[in-house]
Design goal:
The complex is a heterodimer of chains A (336) and B (363). Chain A has 336 residues and is an all-alpha fold. Helix content of chain A is 67%, strand content 2%. In chain A, strand 1 and strand 2 form a beta hairpin. Chain A is flat. Chain B is α/β, with parallel strands linked by helices and 363 residues long. Chain B has a single domain, classed as Rossmann fold, CATH 3.40.50. Chain B contains 11 helices and 12 strands. In chain B, the strands form 2 sheets. In chain B, strands 6-7-8-3-9-10-12-11 form an 8-stranded mixed β-sheet, with helices on both faces. In chain B, strand 9 and strand 10 form a beta hairpin. Chain B is globular and about 65 Å long. The termini of chain B are far apart. The chains are: A mainly alpha (336), B alpha/beta (363). At the A-B interface, helix 14 of A face strand 1, strand 2 and strand 4 of B.
């Protein structure tokens, strides 16, 4: 528990914000459907509930057919998150497998796998998805997941291959091989742990790609329109002319949800990046010394200068800080 | 001889959540014009922190907690008062750097940009600090390479096409680009084998003679300094333990630590003797103990050592007069132990200070 707490405290602020935000959406996906006040598909025929403004009964208003939008959101977030996370796991696993094996085995394997990766990389993803999903007999959740995973891995595979090539030439890999370790042990114990931050970033990026693409596909109607996801809510809002009729409560919440999930993932991604390479973190922020912000490019601060040039108000404020205790420590004297 | 760089009472700390790490503690060191001063000490003794702290190159959480660094170069002061590097702002420091005080960094491997040609990197330094037309700057770069004995056709090479020794020479050439008066050299020969090392040292001495700059030479290799330096300062746990001419340090090392260092490498001539290292490891700088930091490893330690105030005092019993400039004589921080090897001593610094006796040895 305490190690978890320490990990959390050491996270950059960006990552904390991203994690909290993303956690909220995950929570929503888990318990959302139980919380939804109405059946999202139930069209209430009451005339005053057609395209009604948000009210106490319907917190996010209703659609043109009298369906409760809050319920649709709560149910829809689950489907979208489920799809995105599954695509993230499958595509990242594929990219790790392809990337690491092609770099580690080298030779013919590398050639073949690289060619395959490059072919997948140059396929224009969205048009192909539209084609595939348009012709697939049943365009449900699973069809989308499979097609998105099949097209989402090559970017990660190339990055991971490049990183593996670099690590493979390090001396500790040579040492492991020399001591008779099997290839799979070297890969799982020596190479992959060195790529964790890269794999995590690749996963987060893939999830982001899956959410954006699945919402886009649903928006143009290429999904099972009888199920509720953030994309289908937007599809119906668009096809029922919510924008023209000024029913902002219909398209703003799902749009905002997509944007917030995306933002949380980007924040998580940069946060993981900083966590993985502390150098990135150290070179960014200013250090606070004796109550002053010192940037990495500044000359080494001199204590007497710092305290002498501090204004009276600033000095007063500083005297309350923990750092001020250090200022008074005489040279060579006892430390706190 | 006039002091060109006078570091007095300098303390540098790294401010960490666990308290200050006192990496340099009240160090006084003077560099005279045209002189090579060697600064030696083991890893983590604060020698690099001292040099970079004095030139304000350390990044936070480093903090200069006390002292002054007075620089009295001809171009800057022209006979007036020396300037204090510690009161300068960013812009003033930028003018000082390279033009007045230049640095040869520790590992040429990392200090040279691998994707730029040697020529372009040298040009960068020249154009940033001297206002020269492009053609003159190119000529200047070529003469810089001549200075360090690299053929001009190497100008268009990338760093990876040069040998380690050549890379180090390029770094030295770069430091000399703006004709500085003081050159700090931070272990410039550490990664090189002894033959190349010797070549480069000879080159440094030759360049120093012709161009007339002063050198602060940082290394962990005392034997190298004995040959190269005019004066030597021995550093341990952030403090200076002994300063003196190379000759004095070699013939009669006064501090037990210096004696230990000198006993840990063989000499080419003279009788065979048992080599003795210094057992133990340096103290934790976050938690300084009173008195001499060397107590736990010192074979001469007595109870009085814990009260030593670590200021440098003249080594007693030697006829060597103190020069007109402070810090020129042979000074030691240890008032207890007698200098080794010298002529019979008249007494110890503290008059009737005890000779080393077994009863007083600290555990």
């Amino acid at each position: 528990m305490s190690t978890l707490m320490r990990l959390w405290r050491n996270l950059p602020l960006k990552a904390k914000v991203g994690a909290v935000l993303f956690g909220l959406f995950v929570l929503c996906a888990i318990i959302g459907p139980e919380l939804s006040p109405y059946d999202p598909s139930y069209a209430n025929p009451a005339p005053n509930l057609l395209m009604a403004h948000p009210s106490a009964q319907h917190l996010l208003g209703t659609t043109q057919t009298g369906q409760d939008i809050l319920s649709q959101m709560l149910v829809g977030i689950r489907l979208t998150m489920e799809l995105a996370l599954l695509v993230g796991v499958i595509a990242t696993a594929l990219s790790v497998i392809v990337g690491v094996t092609s770099a580690f085995l080298g030779g013919v394997w590398d050639e073949v796998l690289s060619v395959v990766t490059n072919v997948f990389l140059v396929i224009p993803a969205l048009p192909l998805l539209i084609l595939l999903l348009g012709y697939l007999p049943q365009k449900g959740q699973w069809a989308t997941i499979i097609v998105l995973s099949a097209l989402g891995w090559p970017w990660g595979a190339r990055v991971i291959r490049a990183q593996t090539l670099m690590i493979r030439n390090r001396d500790f890999i040579a040492a492991a091989r020399e001591s008779g370790e099997k290839s799979w042990r070297i890969i799982t114990l020596d190479i992959i742990p060195n790529e964790v931050s890269l794999i995590a970033a690749s996963f987060v990026n893939t999830v982001l790609y899956a959410i954006a693409t699945s919402v886009a596909l649903a928006f143009i109607g290429l999904t099972n329109l009888n199920s509720w996801s953030l994309g289908t809510i937007l599809y119906w809002a668009q096809s029922q002319q919510a924008l023209q009729l000024g029913a902002w409560w219909w398209f703003v919440p799902p749009g905002l949800a997509v944007a917030l999930i995306g933002a949380s993932l980007v924040l998580l991604n940069t946060g993981i990046d900083e966590l993985g390479s502390p150098r990135l973190r150290a070179s960014r922020g200013a250090a606070k010394i004796a109550g002053r912000r010192i940037w990495p490019t500044d000359p080494t601060p001199v204590l007497t200068q710092l305290t002498a040039s501090r204004g009276r108000l600033a000095a007063f404020a500083h005297s309350f800080s923990r750092g001020s205790l250090l200022d008074e420590t005489p040279a060579g004297g006892e430390l706190l | 001889m006039s002091p060109i760089l006078e570091i007095s009472d300098l303390s540098v700390a790294y401010r960490t959540p666990g308290g200050d790490v006192r990496a340099v503690e009240q160090v006084n060191l003077t560099l005279n014009a045209g002189e090579v001063v060697g600064l030696c000490g083991e890893s983590g003794s604060g020698k690099s922190t001292l040099a970079y702290g004095a030139t304000r190159l350390l990044r936070p959480p480093a903090l200069v907690t006390s002292g002054s660094v007075r620089y009295a170069g001809r171009r800057i002061t022209s006979g007036g008062d020396p300037v204090d590097l510690l009161t300068m702002n960013h812009r003033e420091l930028r003018k000082m750097r390279w033009r007045e005080i230049a640095i040869v960094f520790q590992s040429a491997m990392n200090a040279l940009n691998p994707v730029l040609r040697v020529q372009d990197q040298l040009l960068d330094a020249v154009q940033a600090h001297l206002r020269l037309p492009r053609s003159e700057a190119r000529e200047k770069v070529a003469t810089l390479l001549d200075l360090v004995g690299i053929p001009r056709n190497r100008l268009r090479s990338y760093p990876h096409e040069l040998s380690g020794g050549m890379r180090q020479r390029v770094m030295i050439a770069m430091a000399l680009a703006a004709d500085p008066e003081v050159v700090l050299m931070d272990e410039p020969t550490t990664a090189l084998d002894v033959v190349v090392q010797r070549d480069i040292l000879a080159q440094i001495v030759e360049l120093k003679e012709t161009l007339g700059f002063s050198v602060l030479f940082i290394t962990h290799d005392l034997s190298l300094l004995l040959e190269l330096a005019d004066r030597i300062a021995v550093m341990y746990a952030g403090r200076l333990l002994e300063t003196g001419t190379a000759d004095a340090i070699m013939r009669s090392p006064a501090h037990p630590y210096t004696q230990g260092l000198l006993n840990s490498f063989p000499s080419l001539r003279g009788p065979r003797r048992e080599l003795a290292g210094i057992p133990g490891s340096p103290p934790d700088l976050r938690d300084p103990q009173p008195g001499c930091p060397f107590i736990p490893r010192c074979t001469h330690a007595v109870a009085a050592c814990a009260e030593v105030d670590m200021s440098l005092i003249p080594v007693s019993g030697r006829a060597e007069p103190l020069g007109p400039v402070p810090g020129v004589g042979h000074l030691t921080a240890c008032p207890i132990v007698l200098p080794q090897g010298g002529a019979p001593q008249g007494g110890t610094a503290q008059g009737g200070a005890p000779k080393v006796s077994q009863e007083g040895v600290l555990s």
